[in-house]
């Protein structure tokens, strides 16, 4: 898969199908895969959080999730055909796991939300083999939870914890998890459980998923998106202006 850098942050250019094929091939070989998605907020935070940055850069597959990243990359001259939304990839991977009898493990959310998410996943994928699940409030005893995951026999692990905790947890414990594939899925369990709703398709296509989240959780989300979106726009402007200036100087010579 082609790897590019946007504002000094690495990511892969791939379609959903290309991503699924790559993961499937690696699973068939029992080749460990650490997966992550990049959106505007994560990119901005990586530039000031070295721990998060190292955890993301350690990943084998770094998919472009947010439309803001797609548009920003195109603005700076990269060819991006589509984004690979984490929640869509999650559902595709559950279907793959059900089809190939890969045991999966869910980690994250509150116990109530997790129970509902597990039920919804089973309803959507009746043949899905669930190796186990655990809530996301275990920070006083991480090693014990890691042992449970390892002992479960899971082949795929989905971690629904907020960033940067999930990326750093995965990167810290990846060698002890005993799985072949691990992916952070953020608030996916909340959507599965019906606690929050995903934005309409038109908002997804217009890059307005962030606005939909702000409307659902204004007190928690407005500041995060206002700051990160503004910083991202400024960084793109500076990089584009620098590129134009360099070209102008080259032509003048």
Structure description:
This protein is an alpha/beta fold. It contains 12 helices and 8 strands. It has helices at residues 16-28, 40-46, 50-57, 67-75, 86-100, 111-124, 142-152, 165-173, 188-193, 201-205, 209-216, 218-252; strands spanning 2-6, 9-13, 33-38, 61-64, 104-108, 130-134, 156-160, 181-184. The protein has a 6-stranded parallel β-sheet, with helices on both faces. Helix 2 packs across helix 12. The chain is globular, with a radius of gyration of 19 Å. The mean pLDDT is 91.
Summarize the structure.
The chain is of the alpha/beta class and 253 residues long. 55% of the residues lie in helices and 15% in strands.
Tags for this entry?
8 strands; six-stranded parallel sheet; alpha/beta; globular; 253 residues; two-stranded antiparallel ribbon
Q: How many helical elements? A: 12
Which sequence of strands runs across the widest sheet? 4-3-8-7-5-6
Outline, from the CA principal axes?
A: globular
Helix content range: 55-70%
Number of strands: 8
Overall average residue pLDDT: 91
Secondary structure elements and pairings:
Blueprint: E1 2-6, E2 9-13, H1 16-28, E3 33-38, H2 40-46, H3 50-57, E4 61-64, H4 67-75, H5 86-100, E5 104-108, H6 111-124, E6 130-134, H7 142-152, E7 156-160, H8 165-173, E8 181-184, H9 188-193, H10 201-205, H11 209-216, H12 218-252
Parallel strand pairs: 3-4, 3-8, 5-6, 5-7, 7-8
Antiparallel strand pairs: 1-2
Helix pairs in contact: 2-12, 3-8, 11-12
